[in-house]
Amino acid sequence: MRDSRHRKPVVFGPRCKWDGGNRRATTIRYVVIHSAESPSDAAQGVANYGARTTTKVSWHVVVDDNMLIRQLPDLAVAWAAPPLNTNGLQIEMCGRASYSKIEWYRHQGTLKRAAWQVAKWCKTYKIPARRLSDSALDEGEEPGIVTHAQVSRVFKKSNHTDPGAGFPMRYFMFLVQRRLRWLG
Question: Does position 1 have pLDDT exceeding 50, yes or no?
Fold first, then answer.
């Protein structure tokens, strides 16, 4: 049985106010997982913030329990997790880095909807559906899936800890791999 309930709705816009210009698809090597530090049903509010903020931040999609909002095209450079802006796809999940694993599990809609998007990106850009270790990320030889916290630890360009120690990464990767199989 396919999990079609979490594939939609996908809403386009509003576009994030800031971005770093265009890039080639061949430069995309990573998916970076973020928590939006917002309530679990706040995708529209996060999208509106991204469209109006004077802070130079942006992301490709934001997802909550009810919808996914596309804010930048994949080939636009989002300003979210330096230095993985030019070669990363950025997904903001409504939730908080302070969430426990149980709190994240309560938001199956967010996790499953985000997993669909990540699986589509993995298929489109030939990114292996695997979580990279900090050392693999630091070496930069393998493409894969990372968190903003990892990017901060490895490259020390920010101090972000999202999506948090309680984020159920093993379960999320299971969801991504399962959806990738469904995508063929």
Answer: no
| Interatomic CA distance for residues 7 and 140, integer angstroms | 31
Nearest to 108 by CA among 58, 168, 165, 153: 168
Q: What's the CA gap between 177 and 128, in Å, rounded?
A: 9
Q: How many CB atoms lie within 10 A of CB 9?
A: 9
**Domain 4-183 CATH (choose: 3.40.80.10, 3.90.1710.10, 2.60.40.10, 3.40.50.720):** 3.40.80.10
* pLDDT tens readout for residues 146-157: 999 999 999 999
* Host H or E run for residue 149: helix 148-155
Which segments of the chain are extended strands (E)? 10-12, 30-35, 61-63, 68-70, 88-93, 144-147
Decide if 36 contacts 92 (C-beta within 8 A): yes
The side-by-side arrangement of strands in the sheet containing 88-93 is 10-12, 68-70, 61-63, 88-93, 30-35, 144-147
Q: What confidence tens digit (pLDDT) does each residue in 19-38 have?
A: 999 999 999 999 999 999 99
Task: Report how far residue 93's alpha carbon sits from residue 168's, in angstroms, rounded to the nearest whole number.
Answer: 13
